[in-house]
Amino acid sequence: MLKKKVEEILVNQIEKEAYSSNLYLAMAVWADTNGYEGTANWLYAQAEEERLHMMKFIKYVNERGGKAIIPSVEQPPSEYKDIKAVFAKVYEHEQYVTELISGIVGVCLEEKDFTTHNWIQWFVTEQIEEEASVAAINDKLRLLGDHNLYMFDRDIMGMRGQVPASSE
Ligand code: FEO
């Protein structure tokens, strides 16, 4: 059975993951409608991943005797200056999510919920990977300067597989 404080912070994270998914979806739409097919592909796949993260929180809360709340989600920005601005924002957002996950780890320790502490480690590792993959993209963009964005877009196209039709 989840303690109240643990349940609250996990339910809070459902909204954060839902927002992350919609944020990347909005960025994907921006890329898709500005001719960056590869970038859109990457972002659509990222949005699906965030939805899966949200589902993990929902299912875990229910499984442990809590009740997941499906949140309303704030509308993410739909306009971006350029690709660099998009990926700078992705990196900033992932760093924010890493802080949130660390906050959950902290509550688990305070409440001595070692089961949830163990479960959340998957997200701790996931955040290391997410930050690293976005940092690598930002490095590529820095090396390219303002040129060759077409090449960048082709390049990133191969970084993810096909976007799954559904995350179910
Ligand atoms: Fe759900 Fe990108 O962290």
TrEMBL record:
InterPro entries: Ferritin, Ferritin-like, Ferritin-like_diiron, Ferritin-like_SF, Ferritin_DPS_dom, Ferritin_prok
Tree of life domain: Bacteria
Keyword annotations: Cytoplasm, Iron, Iron storage, Metal-binding, Oxidoreductase
Chain's role: May alleviate iron toxicity in the presence of oxygen. Iron-storage protein.
Keyword Iron in annotation: yes
A molecular-function term among this protein's GO annotations: ferric iron binding
Chain sites annotated for binding Fe cation: 17, 50, 53, 94, 127
EC id: 1.16.3.2
Main location: cytoplasm
Family as reported in the entry's similarity comment: Belongs to the ferritin family. Prokaryotic subfamily.
PANTHER family: BACTERIAL NON-HEME FERRITIN (PTHR11431:SF127), FERRITIN (PTHR11431)
Name the UniProt record assigns to this protein: Ferritin
One Pfam assignment: Ferritin
Catalytic activity: 4 Fe(2+) + O2 + 6 H2O = 4 iron(III) oxide-hydroxide + 12 H(+)
Localization annotation: Cytoplasm
Cellular component terms (Gene Ontology): cytosol
Occurrences of domain Ferritin-like diiron (ranges): 1-145
An annotated GO BP: iron ion transport
Class of enzymatic activity (EC top level): oxidoreductase
